[in-house]
Design a protein that fits this description.
Blueprint (H helix, E strand, L loop, with lengths): L2 E3 L10 E6 L5 E5 L2 E5 L4 E4 L12 E3 L5 E4 L4 E6 L2 E7 L1 H4 L5 E5 L2 E6 L2 E6 L2 E8 L6 E6 L2 E6 L2 E5 L6 E5 L4 H5 L3 E7 L2 E7 L11 E6 L4 E4 L3 H4 L3 E7 L2 E6 L2 E8 L2 E8 L5 E6 L5 E5 L4 E4 L4 E4 L8 E7 L3 E6 L4 E5 L5 E4 L7 E6 L4 E6 L3 E5 L4 E5 L7 E6 L4 E6 L3 E6 L4 E7 L3 E7 L4 E6 L2 E5 L5 E6 L2 E2 L2 E6 L5 E5 L4 E5 L2 E6 L10 E7 L2 E6 L2 E6 L4 E5 L10 E6 L3 E6 L2 E6 L13 E7 L2 E3 L4 E4 L6 E6 L9 E9 L7 E2 L6 E4 L5 E11 L2 E14 L7 H54 L2 H16 L3 H21 L4 E3 H19 L3 E7 L7 E3 L3 H13 L7 E10 L2 E8 L3 H11 ...
Parallel strand pairs: 60-66, 68-70
Antiparallel strand pairs: 1-28, 2-3, 3-4, 4-5, 6-7, 7-8, 8-9, 10-11, 11-12, 12-13, 14-15, 15-16, 16-17, 18-19, 19-20, 20-21, 22-23, 23-24, 24-25, 26-27, 27-28, 29-57, 30-31, 31-32, 32-33, 34-35, 35-36, 36-37, 38-39, 39-40, 40-41, 42-43, 43-44, 44-45, 45-46, 47-48, 48-49, 49-50, 51-52, 52-53, ...
Amino acid sequence: MSIQLTEKDGLPDIEFYNVIEDNQGFIWLAADKGLFRYDGKKFKNYSHPDKRGLSVFNVKLDEKGRVWCNNISGQFFYVENDSLKLFTDLGQRAKGELTNFIFYNNKLAVYYFREIILIDMDNASSIKAISDNNKTISTFVHRDSLFYVVEDEKFNSTDGESFSQIKTFKNKLHSDFFYINWRFLNYQDKTFFLGLEHVASKVKKQNNRLVLETKDSLKEIQLPNDLKYTPYINYFRFEDLLWLATENGVFSCDYENGKIVIKDHFFKGKSITKIIKDRNNNYWFTTLRNGIYIVPNIHLKELMLDFEDANITAMSKAGEDKIIFGSSKGSLEIVNINTEERKRLPTFRENKVFAITPINKDSIIVGYRGFTSLINIDELSNKDITNFFLTGIKDFSYIEDNKILVACYNMAAEVSLESKEFKERRLASFRSYTTHFSGKNDRRYVGYVNGTRAYDANFNEIEILHNNKEVFTIDIGETEDGTIWLSTFKNGILGIRNDSVYVNYTIENGLLSNLTREIKGDDDNLWISTTNGIQVLNTKTKKFRNLTRRDGINTYNISDIIPFKNKLFFSSNKGVIEVDKEKVFKETNTLEFDFTDVLINDKSQELKNSYSLKSDENKVQFEFQINGFLSEENVQYTYRLSDKKNSDKWNVINQNINQVTFNNLASGVYEFTLKATAIDNPKNEFSRVINFTIALPIYKEWWFVFLVFLSGVLAIWYRFNQRLKTIKKAQEVALEKERLQKELVSTKLETLRSQMNPHFTFNALNSIQNLILKNDKKEAYNYLTKFSNLIRDNLHLSTKSFVEFEKELSLINRYLELEELRFKSNFSYEIMVDEEVEDIKIPTMIIQPYVENAIKHGLLHKTNGIRKLRIEFFLEDKVLVCKIIDNGIGIKRAKEIQKSNKVKRKSFSTESIQERLSFLRDYYETDIGVEYPNVNEGTTVIIKIPFYL
């Protein structure tokens, strides 16, 4: 049973010359396209920039475990740190001849037909050559010594430096046997030389020779004709047999009575170049034109039948050494398992064979689709059975005395096959699938569509229940101790004793799957086919052994099982498998996996046992695998991630998944444990551990926390200090405002006093007196009323810092009305207020004094024309602008008049108003004040006053 690696498996070439396995389980291949490494999943190519050509031929391991290879150009390479290194170039010496090489005592021993070259592996320039007058030399290592043979002389060395002659033969290896390529072979503790003639010839002649070294001579050993004329390429020793890899497949041979005897021949027609057995007991066969064949289990063989693409659907044991096979197309064939002699029976019906059972040594009964036949295998005759009970056969079991237990599509029955007539007894009228007769228990067992039942000798029905439920059975078997075994649809295997279930095997206690199919008792063993493999249960020890795809089983769709003393046969839709029952179970695969990569935040890292990561390096991925072909078929991976706080439970990794990824891990100390467990032996396990630490974020480090705490304390102190300063400043501002307020009040009082100056009061009273003397009581009354109102409004507004603009404007109007009464018709005034000036408040006692100054100093001294006064109000840059325009004598003439007066008086409230405006400017920090622009006539005063809404 072999598996061929092809392009779909990633095979990079079809022409291979050599193969080895290294200490880590990697398979190295010397191919026409170069050197390749196979890890069980993918191939990797190794090359060197100075390498001449693609092909490499020999591939070997040195004492350090390094892989070496060479090419026909005389270059020698080795692999170190996962790259190909050039060791030396002997192109000038080899002259195009393909050399071979071996390792001995830290020497690279390169040899070809005429010379041995010894190179110090620590110093490639240290070269020693051995030759003997152009004679052919054969070189080999045996029992810790280096040997070479030149004609009739044999030399050896124990240090790789000096050689001494140890034997002289009576005949000559090369001259007497006419071969130039001899290979040393130690077999059965004897020294042989295998000779191969490389020179092609159209004349048929013996290509190969085998020579045995005796005490003092070389003796030729007789070869079978198949080995004489088939060029051999390599050899391999296996279980006391010699395997010769040739251009016509592999010959399994033995040395008996002085000659080579062929035991087996396989891979016929294939040029096999090398054979090895890897650490998982897989056999590798490299070829020149057909790629690579792998035999996972050398003790599984495919039994070849002449059924022409028909599936094997039924088989039965016939005596102690024969099997009868039936196919999906009605073919029947009898095979002797010891001699492999085959006997093809005529195809009586081209219908699928459902069941076969022997009646006696000469006759078998065959259940086809729709009918049943009784066939005499000696006379090759058949007789169709037309009995109603023998149509639609699913299964039957031979009882005794020509009686059979029959399972049909619509019933189960016991049928007697007498020569004259068929007698039957119906057991139940339900569709049935399988039957079994137990002589030890005197029971008939039938698996129906609605459960499983047993019948005693009196045909009393006994229903088989499991957990008080019906049991749906696919197949029934029996072991030597009389235990009846039921293969169920989904509940695994049930063991029956005394008509009751006493044991149940499932995946929890050893089964590969709860979905079981065909079973067969074999002494104390029970062979079981499942959807995940084939198993044998030792009912005494209760231990399972398994055969799966890693053993070369190419299908689990098993249709029948036939055990013999030393052999076992499985039939399936892909043919028949022959099993050596004692040797078929391989040693458990190695579970020693390796971590192939560790990725931190998706970046590959150097492989180590521990890692220290930053706080943001919190995505960790582990990749792993067991090197080797199908090495993980029987492996279940589990993992656990532990930290100081807890130890997580073991997590199962799905089959064919070879990585574990952790995202957004918190800071901490972690231990990642990966464990590989053998599925068929849970006690066999292997684990590796990687430790890693993810640092705390900077904001969680103790020093950072301390700095934050210290910064917090300093910030609180700073904030508190700033608050104190703010409060102090606020207090200072409040005190300053209080001072300014007092200054304003004082200024207002002073202004009020200055406004109500004696001159104005005297003029007003004098005007009232004149009106009274003129007996103009009405005018006098009006004047006096307006004067009193003005005095009252002034006193009222003087108590407030700000007042509505309308009230201030009303005060100015009252004052101007009095002045208009005093000047009669020689005075007019006009007040203009912009529409934007509304609903605002302004400081009191600011405008009226400047209006009074305009009348007193500007208009009073005007002698000609009507005295005019115009007042305008509008908003500009967040202040209220008051423009007072008169057509009086102007500022310059007013100063001259004031200077000529003998009585000196301060300007009308000017100093007080200026001081007050200065206070307001400082307080509101805005453009507040009085301007006197130059004009051609009269005087213009511009006052900028603060306001708020």
